[in-house]
Amino acid sequence: MKFPRRTLEDPAINLTPLIDVVFLLLIFFMVTTTFTRETRIAVNLPEADAEQAESLPNQIEVLVSQGGRYSVNDQVLSDSQLLTLGRALIDAAGGDRSTPVLLIADAEATHQSVVTAMDAIGQSGFSRLSIATRRADESNGAGATP
User: Fold this and answer.
1) pLDDT of 141
2) Are 85 and 120 in contact (CB under 8 A)?
3) In the predicted model, what is the mean pLDDT of residues 91-111?
4) Quick check: 84 and 78 in contact, CB under 8 A?
5) What is the domain-level CATH number for residue 112?
6) How many Å apart are CA 16 and CA 22, to the nearest integer?
7) Do the domain assignments include residue 17?
8) What would the DSSP string read from start to end of 22-57?
9) Are 104 and 139 in contact (CB under 8 A)?
10) How far apart are CA 113 and CA 44, in angstroms?
11) Is 71 within the bounds of a domain?
12) Domain assignment present for 16
C-alpha cells in the first residue's frame, strides 16, 4: 500500500497581532509623553524690610564676593573649592556644628557660588543657616540684615 505524498508547507508567521501591539504601544507613548517648553522668566529678587537682627557673638560669617571668592570670618580662602570652604567652616567653629552660620552674598555674585556655599555649609554638618539681605534704602549694601 502506498501512502500519498505530503508536501511540507513553509510555516507562516501571522504579523497582524504584532502590528496591532506596536500601534497600541505607539499610541500609548504618544498620549503619555509630556513635552517641556523652555521658558525664560525675569526674576526680581526681593529686598528685606525687617529690622536688623542682633549679631550673635559666636556665629560664623561666610561672605561670597562678586567674583565667587569666599571669606570665613573675614579670612579670605585660598580657593573657591567646596572642600576648602568646608574645612574653613569646621576650623572656625572649633568642631561645634551647632554654631549658627550667616551667609552674606554680594548682589552681583553668581547663583552657583551661593549654592556652593550653602552646599558646603550643609555637608559640613551645620544646620543653623541664616541668609543676609540688604535693606531697600541701602545703596552700597554695606549693612546686612539676617
Assistant:
1) 45
2) yes
3) 83
4) yes
5) 3.30.420.270
6) 10
7) no
8) HHHHHHHHHHH---------------B-SPPPPPPT
9) no
10) 19
11) yes
12) no
